[in-house]
Write a structure and sequence with these properties.
- This protein has about 170 residues and is of the alpha+beta class.
- It has one domain.
- About 55% of the residues lie in helices and about 15% in strands.
- The protein has 9 helices and 4 strands; from the N terminus they run H-H-H-H-E-E-E-E-H-H-H-H-H.
- Strands 1-2-3-4 form a 4-stranded antiparallel β-sheet.
- A hairpin with a 2-residue loop joins strand 3 and strand 4.
- It is globular.
């Protein structure tokens, strides 16, 4: 089943992609924003490191990166802005990866948490998300509030239902 979380992540990734991020960076951003909004909805109760200083325990990163990369990650965290929205970010090589609390959001995480839910039909939903996002003025896309209110909120349930049916189709 495709829920609001997957809709948010997909639309946010499409937003970042349309605004010039690479596909990998856009997927990291999309998952990051979906996690952020889900946590905000719960009052950030279950998220360590979201408020205040970000600390990256090595045990969380070891499964994703070699030891020599972990120190680079810890030293190179910065705030990235997409319009008036900001998120913590780290640059590895020539790519940016977003993080929430103790965890980086990678394209692999996006695939596991978002794409795999579509049962091989993600590309169709992705194309639709890109078309939806492209239909809005850049000012809407650069505004956290306007994006949420104009792009995501009015169609979140419709897209969840439509994309759930897409994922079920043969």
């Amino acid at each position: 089943m495709i829920g609001r979380f997957q809709v948010m992540a997909t639309l946010q990734a499409a937003r970042a992609y349309v605004l010039g991020y690479s596909l990998e960076e856009a997927k990291s951003f999309g998952l990051n924003r979906a996690i952020f909004y889900a946590a905000a909805k719960r009052g950030f109760k279950s998220m360590k490191g979201v408020r205040g200083e970000i600390k990256l325990p090595k045990w969380k990163l070891i499964h994703k990166f070699p030891k020599e990369e972990i120190e680079k990650i810890e030293k190179n965290i910065f705030v990235e802005r997409l319009g008036d929205e900001m998120a913590y970010c780290v640059k590895l090589g020539d790519r940016k990866y977003f993080l929430i609390g103790d965890d980086l959001q990678t394209p692999e995480d996006f695939k596991k948490q978002i794409e795999d839910r579509f049962k091989g039909k993600f590309e169709e939903a992705w194309k639709e998300a890109i078309e939806i996002v492209k239909s809005y003025d850049k000012g809407v896309l650069l505004s956290q509030r306007y994006f949420y209110e104009a792009v995501y909120k009015p169609r979140r349930d419709e897209l969840a239902e439509k994309w759930s049916q897409l994922a079920k189709s043969p």
